[in-house]
Amino acid sequence: MRMFSSVAELEGAIGTHLGFSPWRVITQQQIDTFADATDDHQWIHVEPIKAAEGPYGSTIAHGYLTLSLVSAMLWEVYGVEGIRTAINYGADTVRFPAPVPVGSRLRAGAELRSVTRARSGFRVVVHVTVEIEGASKPACVVDSIGLLSP
């Protein structure tokens, strides 16, 4: 994890790659729990036997499950000392180029795009690429926007 001593130091890293999160395995239990939380029980996600005969050979994670992991993975990539609160503000240009089969290992790579003054602190935009181990295309690409309040 890359730790910045201040927002000013973070600003100095604009345009650089901040690093990668550790790999994490996507389990069927995670997929099922996400399906329950979002009421999205499409068979491609929650019916392993039927999905085994489908286009991906197994169940796949919901795209929004992958997206929801971005915040946690970013906490594993970088931090800023002296921040009282850090909240999600939104996302721009979200894409899901490749499906995530159950059992896949994912990690997030992060490139700092901008740090701008906001009313209550700083708006930080990080370009995140969620990689699937061994795959040629990423699972998710997103510009994640956070608000940091010192």
Automatic annotation (TrEMBL):
Query: Which InterPro entries did the record assign?
Result: HotDog_dom_sf, MaoC-like_dom, NodN-like
> Domain MaoC-like, which positions?
12-126
**A Pfam family in this protein?**
MaoC_dehydratas
Q: Which PANTHER family did the record assign?
A: MAOC-LIKE DEHYDRATASE DOMAIN-CONTAINING PROTEIN (PTHR42993)
Family membership, please give it: Belongs to the enoyl-CoA hydratase/isomerase family.
What protein name is recorded for this chain? Answer: Acyl dehydratase
Organism lineage string: Bacteria, Bacillati, Actinomycetota, Actinomycetes, Micrococcales
